[in-house]
């Protein structure tokens, strides 16, 4: 009788050991990284520039975590410019001090200084990214964040054979900081970029660029996951792979109802996860991206960046015969193909029914667009080189956002320090007008201020984002820090509450952190204000945020520790 009981005891021991091992595997982890911001020689388009990078890499390091893990990233600034790092799309629940926008949630890390960002990834899976949030440093200071499912969980689609991250970027054959500083001095639009890039490489259609072209391997019969990020500074981009269809399965670290397309359109800041199958003739195919440009009568970079999708059976290690084999080129949409852009954008759905706030506590209406600032009397003409001797501006609800320069908004908010900001941002446009019609010139001049809008913890918020025809209509990628939101509807013309409300998707709207507001159109978003702090809402075209296209929400603490922002870290940079 002893043998069966000993076997039973052994079995129980093995069961408990297995359970303990599984439990250990499923425990969230803390990932520690060091980012050194420094000048690094980078050669592109035949010329070497001393570019600002992280750890000497361009693009910067990819961070990989599982849902539930914590990231601890010490950033040391060995460059010559102030810097902060923003973890784009991370919810930052109660950790607003780690969000990163300069003078909003922190003062910048000065040259020679350091700051450690600590935050936990909660309830997000897919692709996000990080980037500098000071001046135009994010032109070269950026990288991917890959969030895998929790240990033991799986994707809601068949596991891909391999995964590739494609960071779409923008390159100036100059110092980007000099470009924006010149524009700030003159009041004119900044010079457009000279190239687009994929993982930092322009590709073979540019001078001196064939050698570094990114090769993405695939094998016949494989289904692979491509994580596509638009890290460009100022340009929405079309992306396509010759002869291959793309199945969209995620965006902005949220899963989507799968749909198939031949072309992607990503505004700066947006990410899209797609499956691609090796179901074509084994050869080489271009993956290409170029501008989607919706503004009128303005210059833009009309070049095309490429990488190569290469079937493994034809890999040829730069032999002469291989070099002569030119990859097949995809047919990208016309630069101004708004119809293709909108069809793609409106195809997104959540995988299943979601809980959309139906009762609204804060019903907000924000106009977004450009403006022209009359030349100040004490300025010489060379400082007013915008249209007709003006200076370019941009605004929300006719308020052009001005950053503080001696304290962060979050510090002033938490410590009740006056004089840094005001909380009187208008809930509606100060004056109603035909937003997408022929706008009177008297409405082209915005006011200036550091104005925020206060929200009680738990408020159910709806924001109508309305593009205007001031100076020119344009597709604006609007990004909200600290939150994801549901996109209920998008349309053209002026938003009409009586008729357009009927178009709202309250069943399975997509969950995003950046919404592409159509040129001469509108978008409606909803979210619950469940994350206390100071949260920037702004256009992710950096030229527009420089001109003032932004505002911020001030979300009160709720009740108890779990509804209260954490205390500021001891090493928070001082101004």
Q: Per DSSP, what share of the residues sits in E-state strands of 2 or more residues?
A: 35-45%
Poorly predicted residue ranges: 1-24
Helical residue percent? Answer: 10-25%
Biggest sheet strand line-up: 10-9-12-17-14-15
Commentary on this structure:
With 575 residues, the protein is mainly β. The chain contains 7 helices and 32 strands. The protein has helices spanning 2-26, 176-186, 320-324, 338-345, 409-414, 497-500, 542-547, and strands at residues 30-44, 47-54, 63-66, 70-77, 85-88, 114-120, 126-132, 142-148, 163-171, 195-198, 215-218, 223-230, 237-241, 246-251, 254-261, 263-266, 271-277, 284-291, 305-311, 362-373, 391-396, 399-401, 447-449, 452-455, 460-467, 476-480, 485-492, 511-512, 514-517, 521-528, 533-539, 550-555. The chain has a 6-stranded mixed β-sheet, with no helix packed on it. It has a 6-stranded mixed β-sheet with strand order 21-20-25-30-27-28. Strands 11-19-18-13-16 form a 5-stranded mixed β-sheet. Helix 5 (409-414) links the parallel strand 22 and strand 23 (447-449). The chain starts with a helix and ends in a 20-residue tail after the last strand.
């Amino acid at each position: 009788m002893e043998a069966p009981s000993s076997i039973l005891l052994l079995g129980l021991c093995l069961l408990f050991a297995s359970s303990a091992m599984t439990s250990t595997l499923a425990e969230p982890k803390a990932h520690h990284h060091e980012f050194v911001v420094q000048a690094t020689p980078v050669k592109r388009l035949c010329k070497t520039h001393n570019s600002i990078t992280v750890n000497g890499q361009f693009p910067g390091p990819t961070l990989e975590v599982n849902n539930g893990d914590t990231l601890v990233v010490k950033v040391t600034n060995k460059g010559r410019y102030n810097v902060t790092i923003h973890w784009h799309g991370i919810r930052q629940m109660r950790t607003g001090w780690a969000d990163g926008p300069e003078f909003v949630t922190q003062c910048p890390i000065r040259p020679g200084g350091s700051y450690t960002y600590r935050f936990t990834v909660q309830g997000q899976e897919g692709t996000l990214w990080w980037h500098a949030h000071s001046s135009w440093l994010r032109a070269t200071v950026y990288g991917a964040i890959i969030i895998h499912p929790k240990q033991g969980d799986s994707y809601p689609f068949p596991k891909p054979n391999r995964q590739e991250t494609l960071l779409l970027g923008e390159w100036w054959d100059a110092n980007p900081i000099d470009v924006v500083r010149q524009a700030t001095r003159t009041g004119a639009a900044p010079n457009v970029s000279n190239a687009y890039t994929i993982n930092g490489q322009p590709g073979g259609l540019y001078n001196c660029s064939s050698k570094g072209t990114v090769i993405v391997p695939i094998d016949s019969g494989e289904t692979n996951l491509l994580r596509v990020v638009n890290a460009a500074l100022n340009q929405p981009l079309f992306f396509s792979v010759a002869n291959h269809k793309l199945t969209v399965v995620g965006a902005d670290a949220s899963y989507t109802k799968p749909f198939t397309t031949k072309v992607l359109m990503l505004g700066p800041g947006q990410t899209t996860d797609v499956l691609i199958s090796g179901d074509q003739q084994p050869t080489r195919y271009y993956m290409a991206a170029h501008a989607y440009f919706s503004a009128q009568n303005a210059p833009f970079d009309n070049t095309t960046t490429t990488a190569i999708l290469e079937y493994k059976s034809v890999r040829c290690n730069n032999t002469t015969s291989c070099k002569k084999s030119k990859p097949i080129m995809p047919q990208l949409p016309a630069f101004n193909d708004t119809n293709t852009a909108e069809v793609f954008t409106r195809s997104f759905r959540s995988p299943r029914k979601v809980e959309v706030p139906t009762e609204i506590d804060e019903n907000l209406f924000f106009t977004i667009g450009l403006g022209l600032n009359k030349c100040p009397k004490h300025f010489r003409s060379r400082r007013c080189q915008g249209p007709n001797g003006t200076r370019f501006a941009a605004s929300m609800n006719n308020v052009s956002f001005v950053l503080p320069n001696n304290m962060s908004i979050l510090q002033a908010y938490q410590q009740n320090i006056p004089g840094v900001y005001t909380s009187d941002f208008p809930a509606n446009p100060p004056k109603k007008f035909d937003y997408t019609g022929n706008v009177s010139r008297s409405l082209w001049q915005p006011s200036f201020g550091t104005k925020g809008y206060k929200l009680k913890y738990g408020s159910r918020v709806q924001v109508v984002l309305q593009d205007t025809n001031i100076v020119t209509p344009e597709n604006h990628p609007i990004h909200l820090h600290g939150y994801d939101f549901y996109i209920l509807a998008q349309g053209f013309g002026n938003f009409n509450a009586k008729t357009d409300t009927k178009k709202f998707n309250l069943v399975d709207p997509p969950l995003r952190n950046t919404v592409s507001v159509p040129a001469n159109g509108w978008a409606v978003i909803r979210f619950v204000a469940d994350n206390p702090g100071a949260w920037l809402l702004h256009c992710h075209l950096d030229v527009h945020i420089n001109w003032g296209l932004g505002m911020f929400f001030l979300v009160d603490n709720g009740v108890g520790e779990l509804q209260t922002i954490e205390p500021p870290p001891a090493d928070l940079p001082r101004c």
